[in-house]
Fold this protein.
Amino acid sequence: MAHEERTSGSTVLPTGAPGAVWVALGVGLFALEAGAFANFVVGFLADVLATLSAPGVGALAAVERAAASVPTLLSRETIPNAGYWNGRRWVDTFLGLRPGVAWALRVALVYAYAFAVAGWAVLGYRLYRREYRTAAWTPRDDVVDRFRSHGWGVFGLVVVFMFVVMAVFAPALGPTTVDKNMRNSYSNEISYWNAETEQVDTTLVGDANLASQSSGDTDRVLPGQYDDFGRYHPFGTLPTGRDLFTFLAVGSRISLVIGVLSVGLSASIATSLALAAAYYKGRADLGMVLLSDAIMAMPQLLLLIMLTTVLDDTWIDGVYSGGFVLALIFAGTGWTYMWRSVRGPALQVSERQWIDAAKSFGQKPSVVMRRHILPYITGYLLVYGSMTLGGAIIAIAGLSFLGLGVAPPTPEWGRAVNLGQDYVTTGSWHVSLIPGILITLVVTGFNALGDGVRDAIDPQSDSASGAAAGRGGGA
Amino acid sequence: MSRISDGRGADPTADSARDPDPVRDRETDGDPLLAVRDLRTVFRTERETIHAVDGVSFDIYEGETVGLVGESGSGKSVTARSILGLVDEPGSIDGGSIRFRGDDLTDGLWREHRGDISIVFQDPSGSLNPVYTVGNQIREALKIHQGLRGSAARERAVELLEAVGIPDAPRRVSEYPHQLSGGMQQRAVIAVALACDPDLLVCDEPTTALDVTIQAQILDLLADLQREEGLAILFITHDMGVIEEATDRVNVIYAGEVVERAPTAELFDAPAHPYTRALLESIPGRSGPGERLPTIEGEVPTPTEPATHCRFAPRCPHAAPDCERVHPEPVAVGSASADHTAACLLHDDEFDIEAGAAYGGGDAPDAAGADDAGGRE
């Protein structure tokens, strides 16, 4: 396997300075999306400042406009799909293509770009491994190789990657935007081909939505169909007539952000407590066992319902449409499981002699924990983190389904399921089914990724039987 | 704190009158670098309390090597860990004092003397963290104790590796522990210990995990370092051969107690305690060709009760009824040297135990042992 990499790698970058070529490729890839990146950074800063109601929002607005003017290849403006039929041809769409084709082209390009970036990163890793790293082999190489031969894990990685790309590029992926199609639908006009009068008319988006609802056997816009206003709906429309794909794309952002935030928070709580428990042992450890047991004994769902009610209308509930509170609650109740999982390995490592050696020459407890125990539990954190993330996404969707959690105007996958549940048995079956399938797929993907990482980290499952055993274990 | 339940003859006051300080100061050297007095380390579990170290006392002066020898489970390593303040729960230091340069470490002063005492553990592959390079781990200690960073720390790390005899040190310094052999690893561990610039090096069985030729090299290295840096060394081992080669003075420890202490040469010439004699006899090569190697029957007991009797009595060929009732205190033995003591009723004038009789009836008749026992009385 190593030999094969060597030969294929050298044909990819046959120049004398492969590092420079690699960096140039990276700069080129970044330049394609520099505008979107600048937009994101500035927009994020503006959001933070607005939340903290700090001064300087005005100055940032100017920067925001400047950032928006930076050209971006994969944007809605460069490859527009919203247009109208004027009787002879499509107007305002990319190269006069049909809106569906223009949209599909943009999505394909976005994903091609994302995979190119991923390939660039892989290329960089191989290059580093072959040309720049002094050691010919490190144990991590085996982990990577074991993961590569783990089909189930690679499947999970691809699903998770596509989900993350969906979340990151959500504004560019949807056929329309949340602002135009949902929030301010009565402030935006669209032109369309009026088939009765055989001329181009204009109407408000809100009115167009009302005429494009999916709420039964006859009134429906199914996946891949155009509505009466020449708008393409890849996943059909919601019962309110809004575009389901746009709703889901933006909803994936919410799921990912809340999921990552809650898992990140619970992982950091769990890690610090596990390190402290492993270092101090005895009473400190016992105290934490009692604390985590007490938290585990609380019914999580009831606690969530209570806290969302109690915190309703407080300032913290307003942050990220209530998503921040959700993340905090998930982290506050979810760290116990992760703590249990990493406490054992941490305790095991804390018995090793190098811990005593470090203590004997007076290393500070915090440094001993970080330097000498933490590296041994990061693998476990990765596995449990990946698996917990799937659980968090289900939990967020479940809460939104129940009408709790993320506040209503903000798109969320669980609410799409909820919105469509009255029409599951009718012709508008797609409203619940598509988000349901997506949730299942993404959660399976995160679990598969966790399985793959676990098997890759564990040297006992060596590559001889790795792939087959991994698939069996995962399924 | 009376360790004698039976009132017969020996009451504590009489003991202390006879031997005010269990460890006699040597006349010439002034204050010891490390003075351990009546150290008691206990492990309290729900089922029992284990007195792992039960009243151990010894001194280490600057620049000398003191041995601590005993079987597995006799409390050697716990003593070492107690000196470094590394006793973890459920263990704790229950009494006694550990004075380093006059400061009692048991008052929580370990922090102040971190780096003055370094430890080298038995298993070199275990005391190096496999995820960091050797140089990285030496620099960690250098940063704490000598404030060295960056290239200065790197140079010093290379110097230290050279000092412990690792060839090609500039390359080895950036290698990981698994790339070194066992002997090289132990040298690297010693380099980490030296990076703290210690006054006292505690070596907890530093050669046990190594093969014999490497053992000799490590012993030579320690002797060289001691000469060059004026280190004091506490050498813990179960190997009498290593003790003979490496130490100036020896403490023989049994079931948490020091049963005999003597200058190394005197201990080997004239062992006073039956346990020491048995240990010496069980060194391969000391018995004649064709003879069975003598062993000590049984195992070291786990001391769960305060000592009220001689803990070696059940395995002792000389054991008399008194040994089951009276806890022996260290008494001076030998005529030439003032700092040879043994905690055995055989040498206590208040008890009239005939060594010869026991030898006659015992199942391990040994002429040399009988000679020594006779000579000391």
